[in-house]
Amino acid sequence: MQDFFFDQLIRYEAGPSWQLVLLCVLISFLLCQMIATVYVWTFTGLSYSRSFVISQVMGGLVTTILLLAIGNNVARGLGLLGTLSLIRFRSNLKDTRDMVFVFGSLAIGVAVGVQAFTVAVVGTVAFCAAAMYLGFSVFGSRRQFDGLLRFQAPSSPEADRLSKAVLKQYCSNFTLINLREVAQGRFVEHAYQVKLRDTSYNEPLVAALRAVPGVDGVSLLMQDQTMEV
Predict the structure, then answer these.
(1) What gap in Å lies between CA 193 and CA 225, rounded to an integer?
(2) What is the DSSP code string of 175-203?
(3) From first to last of its 229 residues, what are the pLDDT tens digits of the chain?
(4) CB under 8 Å to 172, separation ≥6 — which residues?
């Protein structure tokens, strides 16, 4: 396929023919749209942006057009480099995963722009397959059972001992992150970062702490799997 287009279309001193340009633009658009679609399917964040998805497709398309315009001309490449150096991109990406998808779209645009169609197609399929696998699997997850536990207990060694006994029963690990006196020193507010032994232990843990004499205001906030803190 590549040999046909190289022999029939690209060998002109004026640059690639309009047929090849149209073909490259269409291929780049379809492949980058495929990457953007996988991004939408696997998105699990809190602030979805349609403009960012559209930017992925347009970014790959622009990259392809730039490389087709430059071709093998060094002077054009230097001129383009000087022009782009005047542009300041100030958009901040909140998630590193978004940055990877941007680079993926740009890489596909580069591959199509240099007429490496096989690399572009195979690379797109591999990138999308990897993104879907990593997005829907539990690969890299470690904090799916973590939570923030708060409660108030009387300021006495007995209440502290009983509450820690409950934590040891239901939690594989717990760390005290905040401790402060309330009610003029009669009670102490505890804040723990806890890791439950099992996902079903959240309600039994709260019930067991409420059963401790004097313990009040028990709250357990489970961290979402998509949020790293």
Answers:
(1) 15
(2) EEEEEEEETTTTEEEEEEEEEESSGGGHH
(3) 555 545 544 444 456 788 888 999 999 999 999 999 999 999 887 778 888 899 899 989 988 888 888 876 665 555 566 555 545 556 677 778 888 998 999 899 889 988 899 999 999 999 999 999 988 887 776 655 578 888 888 888 888 888 889 888 888 888 888 888 877 767 888 888 888 888 788 888 888 888 888 888 888 888 754 444 4
(4) 195, 196, 197
